[in-house]
């Protein structure tokens, strides 16, 4: 991205001095006031506060009741921002939407950037009138603001106290506009540098989170959350290719609960076609764009839809929509967001490769454990059983024979359980049946290896038939998270898992509830709760909820994690 050079203060001061040469004694007497105004305008570097300060200073300098700055958009056809001074908050709320600069006097100043002074703006043929609730205005002064020789916007003054704007006012405001151009140029450079720094820090945070070895769904949630924050958007949305074509929403970050998770944007959408071809799509108003073939778009306005592309491979897409009526994305924001999406895609590919390596190492380790259990443990248990059976036949004491017989039976049960564990260790993810009950059992069996014991489980209702695929997928992920937390933090010796598909949620809908209770140490004060937040986010995205309660410990210890969502 090209960064403009800093304005030359010496050149600007020279121009300002020339503009003051030959002025009358009355105007010269106001020079101290002008210099104080210029000093005030040049204070600070934050762009919006600089615009506020320019408006206030110009109003004081020209003794005007109202002042405003209209920032011209990148296309030079309208206004991207409009900053006011003197308009009460209540009046601003009544007016509602701010002017877009495409008509009236504001539009005339954009098309022909030159000073306009009017004794009665309502009588000018270029005037388009005021919206309801707008305060009455008659006298008007408009002066262009240039930054690096280009039109940045226009400074508007209205309602001169005690009469009309004079030649002196025009000279003073022109000089102030020159200084405002310098201040705005510096503020824009500072803002651009800060903006680039934020996006770079966000890319580093995403890369670090993705390569930390966390869950794949959590990694996508990190991308969505960082993109929303950096783009100052209403939501961050990650989409991945769906099985039947199109793009499926797999992660959503939003200030308010969203029902968008799991929605598939159809393949016939022109936007999907362009994204899968690796092209970025920028939408002025998603709610009114006919290309947006989804009900999700109705909630949003300006939007960036960016391909997650790395090495010629499109992994999915990233959307950062703003609310309806919000400002458009600038060219700099589009460039930075596109670079962020490319970096996130690269990090996703690296994380995927890392997870594949870790998964392969786990499978190799599980295969070794299964071989050792089969070749060593089972053979020794079988030999021990045969020895006990031989001793049982030789014993003449009935009590001894009964005791040995029970021991042999226990060995047989133990051998069967070990064979079941061997089968679970050797089973690949592609071999798992699609039923929710089976997937839950598989997670429980997988957790038994690091836990050292098998959690108890119970199913209520028609779990496989009643629970939908999306809810089931998130329930299994929530169960995995809860069991992982119990293993890493709870120091539990007993865990009970209940999946209840007969519950009624608070809003009256039928739902499924997962409960994972343990007898561990509970949640310490000030302890990490990122895993619990992940559970809550999953539930809320489906219209459900998640919370914690007391566990199954004998002394009020332990924790019960509850996760529920509509069927």
From TrEMBL:
InterPro entries: GAF, GAF-like_dom_sf, HATPase_C_sf, HATPase_dom, Sensor_HK_TwoCompSys, Sig_transdc_His_kin_sub3_dim/P. SMART domains: GAF, HATPase_c. Residues 46-194, 215-358 form the GAF domain. It comes from the Bacteria. Residues 470-567 form the Histidine kinase/HSP90-like ATPase domain. Keywords: Kinase, Transferase, Two-component regulatory system. Gene3D superfamilies: 1.20.5.1930, 3.30.450.40, Histidine kinase-like ATPase, C-terminal domain (3.30.565.10). This is GAF domain-containing protein. It comes from Streptomyces solicathayae. The lineage of its organism: Bacteria, Bacillati, Actinomycetota, Actinomycetes, Kitasatosporales.
